[in-house]
Amino acid sequence: MRSLASIVLGFESIVLALATIVMISVAGVDPSTALPLCLGLAVLAVVAAGLLRNRVGYALGWIVQVGAIGLGFVVPVMFVLGLAFGGFWVAAIVLGRRIDEAKAAQQAQSG
User: Fold this and answer.
1) pLDDT in tens, 85-106
2) Which residues does 66 contact at the CB level (< 8 Å), separation at least 6?
3) CA neighbours within 13 Å on the CB side: how many for 66?
4) Residue by residue, what is the 3-state secondary structure of the chain?
């Protein structure tokens, strides 16, 4: 589960960092708003990916997802990106648990 979740957070951090540029140059958002919001979430996503060995990392991951969706209130297209990454996050958690359970069952059978 951890590897899938870290992949989602890694890609999301890149998208959030690039969204900063788009928000400033295309959407006309003030840099004093866009920089802390987007880059803050991007850094939080990287920190969350690094902490996925603990429950804290997953809690931070959920906060990143809520924040990414919340960026839609600043630039509406971010609702779409936020919901997409939220879906990827949920899929990573659900599928990751299934993979972990299958690995545990296979190890129990062979060991």
Assistant:
1) 999 999 999 999 999 999 999 9
2) none
3) 6
4) CHHHHHHHHHHHHHHHHHHHHHHHHCCCCCHHHHHHHHHHHHHHHHHHHHCCCCHHHHHHHHHHHHHHHHHHHCCCHHHHHHHHHHHHHHHHHHHHHHHHHHHHHHHHHHC
Distance CA 77, CA 12 (A): 15
Cβ neighbourhood burial of 38 (10 Å; 0-12, 13-18, 19+) = buried
Integer Cα distance of 16 and 85 in angstroms: 11
Closest of 62, 22, 31 to residue 44, by C-alpha: 62
**Is residue 111 predicted with pLDDT exceeding 80?**
no
